[in-house]
Amino acid sequence: MLLRQLEYLVALARERHFARAAAACFVSQPSLSAGIRKLESDLDVPLVQHGARFEGLTPEGERVLRRARIILHERDALQQELAEMRGQLTGTLRLGAIPTAMTVASLLTTPLCERHPQVTVELESLSSRDIMRRLAEYEIDAALTYLDDDALQGVRKFPLYEERYLLLTPVDGPYATQPEVSWAQAAQVPLVLLSRRMRNRRILDELFAADKATASPAVETDTVDGLYAHLASGRWSSVISHAWLHMFGIPAGMRVVRLAHAAAHRSSVGLVVTAHERESAMVRALLTVAGGAGVRDALDTLLRAHLES
Question: How do residues 224-257 score in pLDDT, each as one tens digit?
Fold first, then answer.
């Protein structure tokens, strides 16, 4: 049994398609199929439900898949530890992030790559549910997400910052010159918000409801990019997290206004890693960088600068 054959099985389970799995492994489809057949022969069990197309794994295949992920994870961790002993950490950090936290990922990945020039980063936008699944299946090493999410089980949490919510509105809007607006007032302007299936939107809906108001956005989107694309038109307003200012700033012709009582309702965002094992050298390097990155202070400084401008 070769590690490469285990990689083929993991890729096939992830892609659920022989051609895509082969492409992910940079081999031909016949080579991947032959490797999996050899693995079945070595273990003397059927692993794949064979047919004209991929139909799933057998119960034995599912058991082997779980072990394969652990074995490959330990292989990667060993390689990283040996590289660290040689004084030069190498490898790939696989980092997941919920869409609303993608805007601050560079505050971690940039210093990580500066400190460890041989490290590469694979950054992927994921839902909180996908984050838990991918962590459990060793497909990502760490993730940026809301730390108060009920879906987070069996992880260790490292807070980075607390979201602060602001009304981003056109300079000629009814509340643009006020130092502060209520959530009920914010609900009255033409809004663009994230979709209801996203955690950020559910948080905002709770805050609107606490002020006996309901937000009825004309446009909903599942990306912060899509939200800002509409704001650039000068027609819409939105309630944003101050963390988004790091990437997008304030579009021309708009300004940010404080929301009343927003400081009392902050959602914590941070890193999560699996809790059931010792960290790999890559995860330790990320946590070390995160501890010195000063993400909270950097975002607070940026917020003050925008509010005072």
Answer: 999 999 998 889 999 999 999 999 999 999 999 9
Burial of 234 (0-12, 13-18, 19+ CB in 10 A): middle
Residues whose CB falls within 8 Å of the CB of residue 239, separated by 6 or more in sequence, listed in order: 165, 166, 167, 168, 186, 191, 193, 204, 215, 259
Q: In angstroms, rounded to a whole number, what is the distance separating the alpha carbons of residues 236 and 189?
A: 8
* Contact assessment for residue 267 and residue 216, using Cβ atoms and an 8 Å cutoff: no
Cβ burial of 205 (10 Å; 0-12, 13-18, 19+) is middle
Question: Is pLDDT above 60 for 263?
Answer: no
> What is the share, in percent, of the chain residues with pLDDT greater than 70?
98
Q: How many CB atoms lie within 10 A of CB 74?
A: 13
Distances (CA, A) of 198 to 57, 76, 228, 249: 32, 33, 16, 22
Predicted local confidence at residue 275, as pLDDT: 85
